[in-house]
Amino acid sequence: MKKNYLFILLCSVSICLYSQKTLDIGPSWNEVTNWSDDTYPVSTDVIQISSIAAASTLDRDTDAERLQTGTTTNDYSIAEDVAPKLLTLHKSFSGTSYWDEAATVIYNQGAGTSMLTLNNDFYLDNDQVGYVTIKNFIVANTLSVGATCSIVFNTPTVINNRGTVNIYGTLSSTEAVLGVPDHRFIFSQAGVVNFLGTATVSANGVYLYNFSNVVMSTDASHVVTEDEIAVNGGATANLTINTEDCIQGKIRLNNGSTFNFNINANLNSLGTLNMSSSVSTINMTIDDSVTAIHFANSSSQGTNVADDFSIVGFKENVLRFGTDATGLTTAQLERITADGVASGMSLELDTDGYLVVAAAASIDGNDSIDSFVLSPNPVKDQLNIHGMESIEKIEIYNSVGGLLKSVENFDQSIDVSDLSSGVYTLKVYSTSGEIKRKFIKN
Predict the structure, then answer these.
(1) Which helix (H) or strand (E) holds 346?
(2) From CA 327, how far away is CA 329, in angstroms rounded?
(3) Which value, in Å, is the radius of gyration of the alpha carbons in the chain?
């Protein structure tokens, strides 16, 4: 008999520690009879939306531990009430791994092609120093945060996603509490996150961290300058920028990570670029419409010998590091390759910090670099060359290093009237060596 009492006692304790409350009759959260045991949820409850009440309205301020869908294939949604209410999801989780099931606050666990759409305001909290997780772990599932939805995270928060997450609403953080110095919003796993809303994070917050596929089309006015984009642990991350200045923080890669950075809009106020730990790769693809990608001076951030920074869509005077030629070190510049830049031609920063095709020269013998002159410059028709003897060949390259002209029988001037207006590089080969100069075609 004592064993039976003990068994009953243990069962009672277990129920108290983990209580699931199901909204399974009607769509209203304020109607108490819609809840599975005719009582409202409390802060230690797990709220599960059943397929019967898949479309519901948050018409009551509610505290709970977790919100989750049913396990059947269905489309679940929570609508905003006429007088908006707040759903607070509160954890007491001190773990450091966002894989831990105990960290989950929102879980779209429907099978197959289930969708969870949230159009109500959320507050995510944790009274311990640890993560909370929004989980969308089935590849075919979608979780959407509506345009009117506001998610406030008062703790490091993870989207643990293998499906698709669409965020149209607002993400924001409050002041740090309980010694948590940084509020991180982390996109993880191999799914796709389409971010079309707004975001405000506290100082030193990490905005993207260990993410995989994120598309940014956000309202730039809500992004602060203390963000960080971090790719760690050998991960491959894909970030697409569709709105001007939607990110303004620094970028950090380490431990053999790969960052595919697709830029379709100007970024005028980026922080530093850091590739200072292990061997990492940046593949930057720049849309032809982009005219400005401005990083802060990154010369102190370092780069490893085998680090690789490749650029597709390179144009001179678009990518900038700092405000002068010291924005990158020689070692960092040597790691950059760009499409269209001819073999043997290198890249450098000009006096304003812009990445350009190098105009460095090498010449021996009696010819002098100082005496080498192009005139007129800017030029309209005929470009004259003075100060070099025994010229064997002249080549003209466009701003991305593409060869446009090659002349071997040279007679002190070359016709450039057929060139479009722009900046070009002239390369002269002589018996003494070779030299490069830039000229402007009007």
Answers:
(1) none
(2) 7
(3) 30
Angle at 193 between CA 191 and CA 196, to 5 degrees: 165
- First CA to last CA across the chain, in angstroms? 100
pLDDT digits (tens, 9 = 90+) for 196-241: 666 655 444 555 655 666 766 655 444 444 557 777 667 777 888 8
- Check if the beta carbon of residue 109 is closer than 8 Å to that of residue 138: yes
Task: Give every strand in the sheet of 403-407, ordered side by side.
Answer: 362-363, 433-441, 422-430, 391-397, 403-407
Structure tokens at 208: 């993207």
Q: Give Cα 117 to chain centroid, integer Å.
A: 24
Contact status, residue 171 vs residue 191, Cβ threshold 8 Å: no
pLDDT (tens digit per residue) in 123-176: 888 777 677 888 887 888 888 888 777 777 777 777 777 788 887 777 666 533
Q: Of 210, 215, 342, 335, give the one whose Cα is nearest residue 281.
A: 335
Contact 428, 421 (CB under 8 A): no
Q: How far apart are alpha carbons 319 and 232 in whole angstroms? A: 24
Distance from C-alpha of 68 to C-alpha of 240, rounded to nearest angstrom:
30
| Verdict on whether the full-model pTM lies above 0.85 | no
Secondary structure of residue 107 in the 3-state scheme: strand
Long-range contacts of 345-349 (CB under 8 A, 24+ apart): 345/397, 345/401, 345/425, 349/321, 349/322, 349/324, 349/325
Q: Which two tokens stand for residue 409?
A: 């029988």
Contact 30, 62 (CB under 8 A): no
Structure tokens at 96: 């450091």
Residues of the chain with pLDDT under 70: 1-20, 24-26, 96-99, 129, 171-191, 195-213, 215-227, 232-233, 276-278, 302-306, 342-345, 359-372, 387-389, 400, 432
Return d(Cα 49, Cα 118) in angstroms, integer: 12
Instruction: Report d(CA 62, CA 39) in Å as an integer.
Output: 12
Tell me how many degrees the CA angle 435-358-256 measures, rounded to the nearest 5. Answer: 140
DSSP-derived pairing of the beta strands 413-415 and 382-386: antiparallel
Residue 173 to residue 186: CA distance in whole angstroms:
13
